[in-house]
């Protein structure tokens, strides 16, 4: 699954670079792209593994919070503390993530917390690497990252003799996942290039909220009061961060 999604992302990035004529990263941008590619590969692989063997209610919020807190700390150190409203929005966003994704009860499965820590830490490093890129290009750094990830995933599949064939029914869905993953990376790079790293990292960590909304709308899962509170806090967080950014 990781191999196919990264290949789709690579092809999409190459097409965009060709259409826009973006230069291939060099110097510092190339170095950070390499770091981001390696960290992104570890992060997404650990996330998928954690969700497969652990509990989503533990893995999802842990990855979201850890992946946001690491670049927030770095962002505060490098870029300074933002306006009070933005700080309040960041704290509110983290609370919202934990509320929305926290699973009630215990189903006997392992927590998957170790995989979550690995995934969140790697995604945090990926976010930091993206935040260091210049605004010279948006898609070409993703080409470098996807090449690094493709090499790493081939090494893992070959070295550990992992199964690599997907079922026919799964392939179209995985292709869609690859395109959505690519779109999310592009949006995050653009946000980090034009705004504060801490704010971009926290807003991107709100992805579990959309997962819950889609689960209710598409899968007809029951929404608890905790979910409603988390979604409401998400709206509050976005408003606060917007006010703090404009201040």
Helical residue percent band: over 70%
> What is the N-to-C succession of helices and strands?
HHHHHHHHHH
What is the count of distinct domains?
Answer: 1
Number-wise, the strands total: 0
Biggest beta-sheet profile: none
Distance between the termini: 43 Å
Radius of gyration: 18 Å
Which structural class do the helices and strands define? mainly alpha
Beta-strand proportion: under 5%
How many helical elements?
A: 10
- The average pLDDT is 80
Overall 3D form: globular
- Low-pLDDT runs of 5+ residues are none
Fold and architecture overview:
By secondary structure, the protein is mostly helical. It has one domain (2-82, 106-204). Helix content is 79%, strand content 0%. The chain is built from 10 helices and no strands. It has helices spanning 2-20, 27-53, 56-79, 84-101, 113-131, 140-159, 170-194, 197-204, 207-218, 225-246. The longest helix has 27 residues, at 27-53. The chain is globular, with a radius of gyration of 18 Å. The termini are far apart. The model has no long low-confidence stretch (mean pLDDT 80).
Short descriptors:
247 residues, mainly alpha, 10 helices
């Amino acid at each position: 699954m990781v191999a196919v999604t990264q290949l789709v992302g690579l092809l999409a990035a190459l097409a965009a670079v060709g259409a826009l004529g973006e230069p291939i990263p060099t110097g510092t941008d190339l170095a950070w792209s390499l770091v981001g590619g390696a960290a992104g590969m570890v992060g997404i692989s650990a996330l998928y593994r954690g969700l497969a063997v652990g509990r989503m209610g533990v893995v999802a919020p842990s990855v979201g919070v850890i992946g946001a807190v690491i670049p927030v700390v770095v962002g505060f150190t490098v870029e300074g503390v933002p306006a009070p409203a933005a700080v309040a929005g960041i704290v509110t966003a983290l609370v919202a993530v934990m509320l929305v994704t926290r699973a009630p009860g215990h189903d006997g499965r392992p927590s998957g917390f170790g995989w979550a820590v690995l995934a969140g830490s790697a995604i945090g490093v990926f976010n930091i690497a993206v935040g260091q890129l210049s605004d010279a290009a948006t898609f070409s750094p993703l080409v470098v990252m996807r090449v690094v990830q493709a090499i790493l995933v081939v090494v893992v599949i070959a070295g550990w003799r992992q199964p690599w064939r997907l079922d026919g029914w799964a392939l179209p869905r995985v292709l869609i996942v690859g395109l959505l993953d690519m779109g999310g990376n592009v949006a995050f790079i653009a946000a980090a290039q034009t705004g504060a790293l801490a704010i971009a990292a926290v807003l991107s960590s709100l992805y579990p909220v959309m997962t819950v909304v889609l689960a209710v709308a598409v899968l007809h899962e029951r929404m608890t009061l905790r979910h409603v509170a988390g979604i409401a806090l998400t709206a509050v967080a976005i408003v606060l961060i917007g006010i703090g950014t404009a201040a």
